[in-house]
Amino acid sequence: MTRLVLENVTKRFGGLVAVDNVSFTVPEAGVTAVIGPNGAGKTTLFSLVSGFLTPTDGRVLFDGQDITGLAPEKISARGLVRTFQLVKLFEDLSTLENVKVGRHLHTKAGLFSAFLHTPAARREEREVEARARDLLSFVGLQHKADADASGLSYGQQRLLEMARALAADPRLVLLDEPAAGLNGEESEALSRIIRRIADNGTTVLLIEHDMTLVMNTADRVVVVDFGRKIAEGTPAEVRVNPAVIAAYLGSAATAKAAEQEKLNG
Ligand SMILES: Nc1ncnc2c1ncn2[C@@H]1O[C@H](COP(=O)(O)OP(=O)(O)OP(=O)(O)O)[C@@H](O)[C@H]1O
Predict the structure, then answer these.
(1) Please, which residues bridge with residue 5 across strands?
(2) Domain ABC transporter: where (predicted)?
(3) H or E element: which one contains 261?
(4) From the CA of 40, how far away is ligand 1's center (Å)?
(5) Measuring from atom 30 of ligand 1, which residue has the nearest CA?
(6) What atom in ligand 1 is closest to the CA of residue 47?
(7) 145 alpha carbon – ligand 1 mean position (Å)
(8) Which end of the chain is less crowded, N or C, counting CB atoms within 10 A of the terminal residue's CB?
(9) Phi, psi dihedral angles at 9 (to 5 degrees)
(10) CA–centroid distance, residue 106 to ligand 1 (Å)
(11) How close is the Cα of 43 to the center of ligand 1, in Å?
């Protein structure tokens, strides 16, 4: 089964074509990664899928339904949620409360009824709390449940953001550079968590610069460069693809030239 389809998706910002006629599909099972040099258009692609930007052209289908141009909250209510490159947590709330908020956005009664102490609301509140605790255990943060979210380490905040996204029971989760800023050990733990998310039946689509994580975690990889899809396949296939190697070498050469220019003043 196909979870997500991008059909000829294009996004222009004035004269700049950030995403250029990109088509690919994400199967229901497993982990798909989008990789590419800096500025290739990966985050823009995520924003187009999750409704934070509207495509200039093309269509996005989620479980066979056209979601192109829908508002982000409409898309997340359908079961497609995302995390951000820069963590966005409720800093004044505890770790547990952050996950509960993610869950409340999903429950029938919602956040408001949690304040009305009806038996149904109390029952739902207990379920929300139990599920939130399960998710904290899942990402290894159970011992931090009552700590302020703002006091967590950066790596822990990233895990918390993931738990909060999963609290909505999504069918597809988009993870934007989940390993950014993590050390090797944290990154390995993250890879295992991502695999388990997929094994539990939630489709994972991620953007990542950490190639070790991509190679160890993804089943399929889509490569973009200058807004265009230049390759796709298994990790083993794309790592030896000449177009992919050229794109990465090209971007390394550009970065080196820019550095040299800076040094030259
Ligand atoms: N809102 C915007 N307005 C104008 N240009 C934008 C906007 N958002 C992104 N761009 C441009 O679109 C291009 C693609 O950017 P994008 O952030 O999607 O790349 P990326 O592959 O995610 O990069 P990185 O790996 O550095 O995060 C870049 O040239 C960027 O400057």
Answers:
(1) 25, 61
(2) 4-251
(3) helix 242-264
(4) 7
(5) 39
(6) 18
(7) 35
(8) C
(9) -80, 130
(10) 31
(11) 7
Q: How far is the CA of 122 from the centre of ligand 1 (A)?
A: 45
Residues in the ligand 1 pocket, defined by CB under 6 Å: 13, 16, 18, 36, 38-44
pLDDT, tens digit, for every residue of 90-143?
A: 788 889 998 998 777 666 555 555 566 677 777 878 888 899 999 999 999 999
0.80 cut: is pTM over it?
yes
Cβ partners under 8 Å of residue 223, min gap 6: 34, 35, 36, 229, 230, 231, 232, 238, 241, 243, 244, 247
The region of weakest confidence among 4-18, 104-118, 176-190 is: 104-118
Domains of the chain: 1-79+171-265 (3.40.50.300), 88-169 (3.40.50.300)
Tell me the residue length of the chain.
265
Instruction: For 2, list phi and psi in degrees, rounded to 5.
Output: -100, 125
Contacts of residue 186, defined as CB under 8 A and 6 or more positions apart, other chains included, come to: 155, 179
Q: What number is the ipTM of this complex?
A: 0.95
220 is written with which tokens? 């399929």
Residue type (1 letter), 65: Q
Query: Chain-centre distance of CA 119, in angstroms?
Result: 36
Whole-angstrom distance, CA of residue 94 vs CA of residue 146: 5
Residues 75-95 pLDDT 10s: 999 999 998 766 677 788 889
Helices and strands (DSSP H and E) totals, the chain: 10, 10
Report the nearest atom of ligand 1 relative to the CA of 14.
4
Please count the CA atoms within 13 angstroms of the CA of 71 that sit on its side-chain side.
3
Give the tokens for residue 5. Answer: 């389809």
Please tell me the distance from the alpha carbon of residue 106 to that of residue 176, in angstroms, as a whole number.
22
